[in-house]
Fold this sequence. Notes:
Layout: H1 2-30, H2 34-72
Amino acid sequence: MKRQLSTLYAVIDDAICRMAARVQTWRLTQAEGQGLVEYSLLLALIVLVVIGIVSVMGNTVSGLWYQRIIDRWPSS
Length: 76
């Protein structure tokens, strides 16, 4: 009885491994470059957000730093 179960388990394990290999092969052949496109879209979104933040906050931060430099500049 144990030998039949181990043989059955081996058959099931072999079938699962074959299915997993087929799925992996299908994924690799069907999804060419999809990840690259998604990463580039994500990078473009991050760049747009950073540009927006810098354009909104840039003058304020620049003015604060400029004022601090002027205030601490040694006067003759």
